[in-house]
Each structure stands twice: as C-alpha cells, then as structure tokens.
Design a protein that fits this description.
- It is a single chain.
- Helix 4 packs antiparallel against helix 5, helix 9 packs antiparallel against helix 10 and helix 10 packs antiparallel against helix 11.
- This protein is elongated.
- Among the domains are: 46 residues; 79 residues, Serine Threonine Protein Phosphatase 5, Tetratricopeptide repeat (Alpha Horseshoe), CATH 1.25.40.10; 75 residues.
- With 433 residues, the protein is mainly alpha-helical.
- It starts with a helix and ends in a 6-residue tail after the last helix.
Amino acid sequence: MNAETAYLFRHAMLREAAYGLQLPSDRSRLHELAFHLIEAAFGGRAPEPAPLDAVNPPRYEWCATDVVASELSDHARQALTGTAAPGAALSVTPELHRRYVRRAAEYAEKQYQVAEAVSKWRELSELLQGAARAEALRKAGALCFNTGRPKPAEELFDQALPLAREAGHQRIESAVLMNLAVVYSETGRPEQAETASQRALNAAREVGNRHGEGIILRNLSDLYRQTGRPEPGEQLIQQAREIHRAIGSEREEGPNLCAIGIIHQEARRLEQAEQCFEQALAATRRAGDRRYEGVVLGNLAIVCRQSGQLDKAEHLYQQAIAIHREVGNRRSEGISRGNLATLYAVSGRRDLAEQAFLQALAIHREVGNRRFEAVHLLALALLQLEESRHAEARETWRQGVAILQALGDKTLLQSQVTQMREWCAKAGVLPLD
C-alpha cells in the first residue's frame, strides 16, 4: 500500500469513526442543517410537483435546486432516520423527503443517468401508496426496458399492475399493460403481447386517454407487422398519427413517422421510406427527443445502405451509436452495431464486419434482444458462407432461424430466407436451409 492510498484509507476510516461517534439525535440535526444549507445555496426550495397519479398533470416545472435533489433527498432521509432530541421537532418532513426523491428521479432521467433514475424511482415507490406507487414502479420499469433490461422491467411492471387495478386508476393500468405488451413482444410472446395491448387499448379508451390510445395503436401496428399482418398494421399507425395530430402531441410525430418509414422500407419503397425517416429526424430534433433521434438515424442508415448510399449510411450509423451510448440505450446500440457490420460486409471489409457482428451479438444477448440476435446471426452466416466456411455458416443460420420461429416473426423470417436464397443463387452455392 503506497502512502497516498494509506492516507485516503485512514482519512475515510477517521471520517466514518467521527460520524459514528455522534449521537443519533445530533446526526439528525447535522443532516437537517446540511439539507437547509444546500437548499439555500442552490436557489431555495423546489416546488412540489403534481402527484404521480394526477389525471391531467401540468407540465413538469424544473428549478435550479434539481441539480442537488439527490443529495437533498439523502440528507432528508438520514435526518428522518435518526432520533430527534426530546421536545425538538425536525423541520425536514417526510413530504420534503418524497419531494426531493421525486425531483432527483426526474432530473436523473432527464440527464440520462439511468441507474440513478431507476434507483430513485424505486426509492420513491417505497414512500407512496396505491396508483402513485404503481406509476413510480412503472417509470423505473420503462427505464430498465429502454436501456435493454427486459427482465427487471417486467418484474417492475408486474408489481405495478395490481396496485393500479386496486386503486381503480385505469389510465395508469393502461400504461402498465402497454409496457408489458412491448416486453412480451420483444421477448417472443406475441399472443400475450396482443392480449395485453387490446386490454391497454380498452382501458385507454374508457378514460378518454387519446395520447395513450395513439401510442398503443402504434405498438399494435408494429406487432401486426412482425407477425405477418402488414396491411392492418399500416392502417393502425395511420390512425395513431391522426390521433396525435388531432390532440397536438408533437413529440409523437417523430416516432409515428419512423414507424411508417419502417413499413415503407420493408415493402422496398425505399424513396418513401427515406423521406419518412428524414421527416421523423427533423421532428425528433424539434421535440428534443435525443433517444428517439438515435433510433431514427439508425433506421435512415438502413435505407441509405439498401439504396447504395454506403458512405452516408456509415456516417449515420456512427452518429446513431454515439447517441445510443450518450443516452444509455444499450439495446439500440447493439442493433446499430450489427447493422453497421452488415454495411462493412457489403463494402468488402470482412474482418471489421465479423468483429462488429460479434460485438452486436454480445449486446443482444446481454439485453435479451432475441429478434436482432437472430437478424445478425443470419447476416453473419452469409458472411461465413462468403468465406467458404460452410459448416459454420449452416450452424449460425440454424440458430438464427430457430430464434425467429420461436418469436413468431413470419415477415422477418420470410424476408431473411428470400435474401439468403438470392445471395446463394448468385454465389452458385446450395441454400443454407
């Protein structure tokens, strides 16, 4: 142990020892004092936000104190945990503790500090009851899912659903069901996904939640497309867009246009797809939706690659990956890395392609993204076949097909098989299936 390390160790030990020597009542007062000093130094008390279970909450109001909301929530908790001196009431209240835990969660989410946000939403859920507790759990679950962790997300949604039902809060129940439907879809349970989506849609319509209705229709459109029903899927996304336009929900324009673009892209209407993605990109930037901006960039890159704009596609993939890393979107990072590998393969950079495929597959397996694990296994199989590694190629292809069959993604499976047969015919080799 060098001198600097020894000093730091002793310093930390001394600090903990000095802290532990304080009487519980004195510790409470010290945390109370720290709370008030920090609060005053950063602009004073933050306003109380609307309840999480409010039906039509006003726009969330940010304030200067939010940058230290996490520290304030911790000092409030520790002040309340201790034992106050007889006859001396603390000025830090449970309500202030809840307020700053909520503000810390909101601020961390805004800053893409995902682990901190999930931790604070879960902490807040322990301080709430009923529908408000359900919404805190749902928010934590949504962050887990959006950063590629479907299993903990599903566990949080499963905790939230009965709480929302028992409280009779159909709006939150609908939102939880919608989140669960997406998890089911992404983890290969299309029938459960459709059932949950229909229940979510019914609940949203019963309470007049038009914004939620539009999002559920968009998700159902995606599910229909994946399970071989492109025409009703296209009708649903058009309905979703009409609803969001009617209620002035500008933030949903980008995701809706992106969904329409994917339908055009899969139907090989590449010019229309590119126009949709360009419009979606502009819409997400207007809305300041950094996370979805990365998603749209990745989809636009696919179309550019398919239309032969390889340099533009490569640049777009790199932009998308940078944004996914910035916002902690591990799932989409894996998708873009695998798609970039496909571009490397198309442009003859096979070593780079295989390396990028392996990186993407590791991420897909880490976050449980079975669909794109299959897509990139199948693409890797074609690369292996091109290098005359026939046995490897057939095994890799078998693994990818098995996943798509388990997921029930008929549209994607058929397109991949068609592409493979065309490639094998041109190469003069037997089809892998």
